[in-house]
Amino acid sequence: MINHEVRTYKSSENLAREDQLAWKIAEVASDPTPVDSDVTEMVINRIIDNAAVAAASVRRSAPTHAREQAQTHAFNPGANIFGLPVSDRFSPEWAAWANGVAVRELDFHDTFLAAEYSHPGDNIPAVLAVAQHKGIGGKDLINGIATGYEIQVDLVKGMCLHEHKIDHVAHLGPSAAAGIGALLHLPTEVTFQAVQQALHVTTATRQSRKGEISSWKAHAPAFAGKMAVESVDRAMRGEGAPNPIYEGEDGFIAWILSGPEARYTIPLPGKGEAKRAILDTYTKEHSAEYQAQALIDLARKLGGQIEDLSKIKRIVIHTSHHTHYVIGTGANDPQKMDPKASRETLDHSIMYIFAVAMQDQGWHHEHSYAPERAGRPDTVELWHKIETTEDPEWTRRYHSIDPNEKAFGGRVEIEFEDGSTLVDEIAVADAHPFGARPFARANYIEKFKTLAEGIVSDSEQARFIDLAENLESLDAKGVGELSFVVDGLEHSGSKGIF
Fold first, then answer.
1. Is the peptide bond before 77 cis (omega within 30 degrees of 0)?
2. Other Cβ atoms within 10 Å of 438 Cβ, number
3. Which of 86, 94, 358, 440 could be joined to 299 by an S-S link, Cβ 3.0–4.6 Å?
4. Cβ distance 6 to 246 under 8 Å?
5. What pTM did the predictor assign?
6. Which CATH architecture has domain 2-280?
7. Which one has a higher pLDDT value, 139 or 365?
8. Contact 351, 386 (CB under 8 A)
9. Closest CA to 147 of 32, 20, 264, 282
């Protein structure tokens, strides 16, 4: 990996294109180095993972409305939309939109956390939609997805957005554009322009994940994917973009991030170096914010050790800065303690999540968020006894570049009414590569079958899994059928402009 220092330049300094971050990203995308076999296997895993959570959400309001918007944009050859017949084809940017919302709706697919947050699986809908529309086979699709993951992970490692209240999808627009550029074997110049345009139009505030969180939390990454498709299309036609987008004196770093004096270090693969960043990412066993994954596992364990949870006086979760301030009491969001809060808010409340996981000794992507579950009096009582606090050691481990130290959990101290205490800790989720039960292919398939049960027929499940597992050898027809059909999928009856 090559570490690239990125800073603001005055217009009079005439920064060469070849020295700009967007160009270096585009060079990674245009590098023809083959994808390693273990990366190929993980790409397949994440395609299955995306489809699993999309199947579980396909009838929910946000995915339904996004799908209905997309259905007004039929196109030939076009791309598939999850749930609809594979023969029905739609304009690729709208397919990316609909599928992106379905994938993101339940906050249940993969994650990477470093200087910034991210869900790199958000790259897949846009890259896949373009592959289906352009008639591209599995091997090139794998390269496009591996590239999207590489760029997003590398940006997340070196450039924090949330400290400036900028949403993490500002890294997704450029990464998806780079992934599409790699998929299509575009010249560096074309991908360079697309990356800049994608960043420019996908920069937004973090209010979508703050306060009264709405369904835009699921729509925001899908919008970034849609904009990436359009940005590449525009660049392929010879159109340019704001330049230099990162380093310009009125650009991203100078006015949106840390200012003209700031320095960022972005690691990127050198020429001839394989793109392996997807192997640094991890998926979710539980449908909740990733910082909650390990703590759900610990809550399940502790809940089974306590005979009477009503005897608990107080629970303090000592954890990282990110966990405390994003999903903990450090966020200062009263909605995180509100039994009438939306699902999107509850899955960003570790206090709620820990209480329910303790009581149920498990977690379910629907039942654990049901209004009647959130409003249960004994749950509300326990929930309001829980608080978080930042522990510098857990923050240090959160940001560690040593995979053996990097941690997303915390230490839990439970104080009982009689004065006794129970203390335990967990570093990583059970499903994490270094956890008690690391996810492998069989787990991804089981997750798909579990979430698709009662929604996607057994035969349709088998058809999709067979295509996904043979992705590397699929021709354009096979990639064009890499979706799943849901029988009896109904319209919501809602009306908009389209």
1. yes
2. 14
3. 358
4. yes
5. 0.90
6. Orthogonal Bundle (1.10)
7. 139
8. yes
9. 32
